[in-house]
Amino acid sequence: MVTIRGQRLFEDSLNDCKKHRKYDIIAVYAGRMAFRMQRKRDSAGQKGNFMKRRIMSLLTVVFAALFVVSTFFVFDHFRQERKSKKLYEGLAQVTQQGAGQENDEKPTLFFNGKPVLPEYEELFEQNEDMVGWMHIPDTKINYPVVQTPDAPNYYLRRGFDGEYAMCGCLYVQENCDITAPSDNLVIYGHNMNNGTMFGELKKFMDKDFWKQHKTIFFNTLTDRQEYEVVAVFKTFVNSDSPEAFKYYQFVDAQDEQEYDAFIRRCKDLALYDTGVTAKYGEKLITLSTCEYSQENGRLVLVAKRLEA
Less crowded by CB within 10 Å, the N or C end of the chain? Predict the structure, then answer.
């Protein structure tokens, strides 16, 4: 009896040991799996941190490069502005020195068979693309005007000296005839933020300013001329919309009807009524610059020449 009972106790004990061993093996295996998973997570975390550091380093380099490039362009922009300001102020001084002076000597410079005005002789010698001078009192508009029929936009980003300039130079549309002259001379200039070129043409959007500045001045190389403002308006271009006014297409009227239609459209779009109109045969000048309240917007001033 004892032997049998002892044998059973031994077997039960052995079975318990086997069960515990089995659980121990499972526990060990589970521990190893957990350890391996933790190692993988740690490794993935290290790789993730490494990638984050690389991305942050790359972004730092990119932003630093952008800062350097932006700083360069800002300084270059102001350098260009100073250079252009000095150039055009110098040209204005030359014209002032020559203004009112009549040469006793026989003229040596001619433009289309007529002697060049004394104040423009030196500038015309510097640049034969020059065709006149534009001046509007109480604005910064006091510049030479050029024309290059064979290269219409040559002076879009070039100064009077022919070198690169953001502000460019005032220039006449290529199909306009200064000498004849055309019924309408179209002159372009940039709307610069610092007010240069046609940047202060926007002053004419204020009727009170117009009341004090009804006359503008555009001299050709050979004749001093005054123009009376007919209309100031905003429109947009580069569009097939019937509302777009392609004023720049009117250069020489085919007949009185076409001329009157142009004037009527200008008056219809006008920001205010000047009380001034123009009749067929009177010569016009159109000043055009960009206007940013609408896409492809333009600010336009149309004036008629006053006969001496």
Answer: N
Across the range 35-49, mean pLDDT stands at: 59
DSSP 236: E
CATH of the domain at 107: 2.40.260.10
Helix (H) or strand (E) holding 301: strand 297-306
| C-alpha–C-alpha distance, residues 148 and 172, integer Å | 8
Q: In this structure, is residue 38 part of a structural domain?
A: no
Cβ(191)–Cβ(299) below 8 Å: yes
Q: How many domains, in total, are found in the chain?
A: 1
For 105, the domain range is 99-306
Residues 6+ apart with CB under 8 A from 110: 116
pLDDT digits (tens, 9 = 90+) for 199-221: 999 999 999 999 999 999 999 99
Q: Compute CA distances 144 → 66, 74, 168, 190, 227, whole Å.
A: 37, 27, 11, 14, 17
pLDDT band at 44 (very low <50, low <70, confident <90, very high): low
Q: How far apart are CA 151 and CA 9, in angstroms?
A: 114
Sign of torsion over alpha carbons 230, 234, 238, 242 = negative
User: What per-residue confidence (pLDDT) applies to 166?
Assistant: 93
- For strands 297-306 and 284-291, give the pairing: antiparallel
